[in-house]
Amino acid sequence: MPFWIQQDLRISVWVLLPIACGILLRRSGVPKSAARGFFGFAFYGCQTSVTVCALWIARVHAEARSLPALALAGWLGTAALAWAVTRKTATDSKRRGAFILSMAMSNNGFTLLGFVSLALFGEAGLAQATYAQLLYTPFFLLCCFPIARLFGSARKPQSLGALLLDNAKDPRVWLPLLAVFVGLGLNLAQVPRPALVTPLTRLFIYAGTASSGAAIGLLFSGFHFRRYARENALSFLHRSTLYPLFYWAAARLCGLHPLDATILVLYGLVPSALLANLLAVFFDLDTDLTSSVFLVSTVLFLVLVLPVFLVLARP
Known about the structure:
With about 325 residues, the protein is mostly helical. It has helices at about 5-25, 35-55, 65-90, 95-105, 115-130, 135-150, 160-170, 175-190, 195-220, 230-240, 240-255, 260-270, 275-280, 285-315.
């Protein structure tokens, strides 16, 4: 069996099977609210651990220094674009906030981009993919959290300063930021990484993917093609055209290492993020929308986009 088919099937099974298990759990009586615990374990347990382990050995010098800033520029630009689009197309606050988060946040964590990078480029690929999203945790906590608060059901009229202060007081902000500082600190201090960390990293990736997939399955209430046709179409068109083209041009302009350039383009191709669903749950946004955009864009990515990328990007 060709390499790209093996990898595509392997990644697809690990992404989709936990979602199917979550759907079965929901039908067997597990409440939808249990998704909060699954998300918490995946993000605050597994992803923080993967962040430390991968950043520990990332290549952070020379032209790679610009990689996190380039990735951040794409996220902020997409968030601004989605904000502008919803001002013209959406009136419901929960739906608007959910769409902005679904667009701005891509599945560039360990649950998909990490899988692809690890499968194609090994530990070095996972390390660079994690390093490229060095600023994702601050972006998630200091930009996406306030957006979720602003459009959530518990929102209240307040100034931008008060909104950011409320966010800074949230204890959920600081553990992921601490993981970034610890991993990068170990890297810059040139502390040797023990061999045991490699299998532990893989364990965290698989456990986190399974947990977050189960959470998505618990939230699943259908693909809602008609209800969210516009949101799904806009998301797929953006991720298959403007997003990867922006990152390709940025990589060429900055003269990035081929591995870094390939990973940066992949950032533009990956589907909507699992974490958009987490914020929708935490702040009572439109979870049907985030679930729909995540599932539709993930299936389209696995069926249409990933096979082509695996063929073209194979080392």
